């Protein structure tokens, strides 16, 4: 090993600025397996406490992109390709609904996703709940599928951003996710390497997000926009509410079902609104050369006439999956959580619901943990809903009684009921273009 990783860790720990060559060397050596996980974990923790300058963040992103191959999708397809990415939330299955709707509108949607991180779910884990679905396509397969079906979603591979694949798993279990530079580099390296021309970034804000305040979310959004623009991409960022889970379902197979229902026009209101808003931005950024209003109209029409659901089924089949929703795994046990008084849901905290889904087995606590795709939580009542005393608030989908009981207690504690109807909060808080 030529690199002195310990010295770089120490320099960062002590608040020194690393130059691009040092960061590149560290990340590329890690991707080649020449620096062990424990040193990168220590480095991420040093970054967590000391932060990275914008020059360092740019160098880190660039090094991650350079750890593997990159594709210029627009050139490969002769069309402008669009992509969206979320910074991570609870119940965030937006990609699963947005992809088919955008594809049904005739715009190619090609994307590299990630797995669950901390208390948040990951698109790849959700997709793997679908029997047979393959997230590890080769680059050639990715491009060919995008050309043929207009929609392809893959994971980081040995070819594409291998450094993110490794770092992502490490950060997930070392409490080093919620740092602006690490999130921005992770997301934007995937976006830049996977090659879409125009990107919508969904930056989550609130208790269930990595960014807890609007001000922090804005800094993350601006950092990612600037990384994207430096790489020649068109980027729009939406700041969206994550004070409560998105939609009702939290858990891999449960979320696939909810996303498919939304593609058919039968989704929950908050999730449907976010999906249509994202589609409107993506269609406006595409080569259709239409306004956002027209984009929204076309997205709504694709949902209403069934072409979006046809695109969903075509995509799932193309990636080897069974689109029959009855084929999704089901948890052996469903237990209801009952309200202990009547009133309105004043608050439904996203973080404990996300953690309950992880503890049920729907997420990882250690890097190589297997995921139980069937388990999770369905929030039957959300903020602003009226509830009768003893009425069900949520359902716990569990593997066994012990985990169901713990999750039921955690989810009950996530609800705050009161007499007053709370003020409505929009799902989209701001848009930065
Ligand atoms: N999503 C990613 O792809 N990376 C992060 O670090 C956080 C969310």
Strand content: 15-25%
Q: What is the CATH-assigned architecture of the largest domain?
A: 3-Layer(aba) Sandwich
Question: What's the total number of strands?
Answer: 13
Number of domains: 3
What is the 3D shape?
Answer: globular
CATH top level of the largest domain is Alpha Beta
Average pLDDT confidence is 95
Bound molecules: uracil
What would the CATH topology of the largest domain be?
Pyrimidine Nucleoside Phosphorylase, Chain A, domain 2
Q: What is the count of helical runs?
A: 17
Commentary on this structure:
The chain has 3 domains: 5-51, Transferase, Pyrimidine Nucleoside Phosphorylase, Chain A, domain 3, CATH 1.20.970; 73-326, 3-Layer(aba) Sandwich (Pyrimidine Nucleoside Phosphorylase, Chain A, domain 2); 329-418, Aldehyde Oxidoreductase, domain 3. The protein has 433 residues and is α/β, with parallel strands linked by helices. The protein has 17 helices and 13 strands. It is globular. The strands form 4 sheets. Strands 1-4-5-13 form a 4-stranded mixed β-sheet, sandwiched between helices. The chain has a 4-stranded antiparallel β-sheet with strand order 6-9-11-7, sandwiched between helices. Strands 10-8-12 form a 3-stranded antiparallel β-sheet. The longest helix has 17 residues, at 214-230. The protein has helices spanning 5-13, 20-31, 37-50, 54-66, 73-77, 94-104, 123-127, 139-149, 162-172, 180-194, 214-230, 252-263, 269-285, 292-304, 307-318, 350-362, 401-414; strands at 82-86, 109-113, 151-155, 198-205, 234-241, 249-250, 333-338, 343-348, 376-379, 386-387, 392-398, 415-418, 428-432. The N and C termini lie far apart (44 Å). α11 (214-230) links the parallel β4 (198-205) and β5 (234-241). Uracil binds next to α10.
